[in-house]
Amino acid sequence: MAYWLMKSEPDAWSWDQQVAKGAKGEAWNGVRNHTAKLNLMKMKKGDRAFFYHSNIGKEIVGVLEIIREHFPDPTADAGSPWVVVQVKALEPVPKPVTLAAIKAEPKLKDIALLKYSRLSVQPVTPDEWKLLCKMGGM
DNA sequence: GCCAACGTTGGC
DNA sequence: GCCAACGTTGGC
Chain C bases under 7 Å from protein CB? Predict the structure, then answer.
């Protein structure tokens, strides 16, 4: 199983909205960056991803499961290369992990979130995942 | 193919 | 609201 982190501004799409979608989940649409798209295409059914609130909050608030692998983004023009995956909310993070906490943790100095701060879909290593879960009270 | 201009993201 | 990082566009 692989691990990921997906960013959304809560004004545009929040964790609460994701939770409201229940087990059917929702397509993660709007990715318009090729590096992020490649990550979406690497995702397998059953993979897990952190839901990160960018801009407002700046913290990891929940865990998603990938329930359908990539397919064309219905919000993009026909024939465009953009894809989505279907994700469902798995569980909230009891103690949201803030960007400040991530920056303060030496073991996380190489995390993609800090290195490629503008990338909206990024990989998380198993070690990083384990540590972030611990920091989140899971 | 280079690079300046410009738009967007996201932290502060 | 500002600004750094970075991707994209378009002129040459």
Answer: 5-8
The beta strand positions in A12-118, using DSSP E, are 26-27, 48-53, 59-72, 83-98
Which nucleotides of strand B lie under 7 Å from a protein CB?
A: 8-12
Nucleotide nearest to A114 (CA to C1'): B11
Strand B–CB A9 distance below 7 A: yes
Sketch out chain A's domains with CATH numbers. Answer: 3-135 (3.10.590.10)
SS3 A98: strand
Element (H, E) at A6: strand A3-8
pLDDT per position in chain A (138 positions), as tens?
999 999 999 999 999 999 999 999 999 999 999 999 999 999 999 999 999 999 999 999 999 999 999 999 998 887 788 999 999 999 999 999 999 999 999 999 999 999 999 999 999 999 999 999 999 999
**Whole-prediction pTM:** 0.94
Quick check: A99 CB within 7 A of strand B?
yes
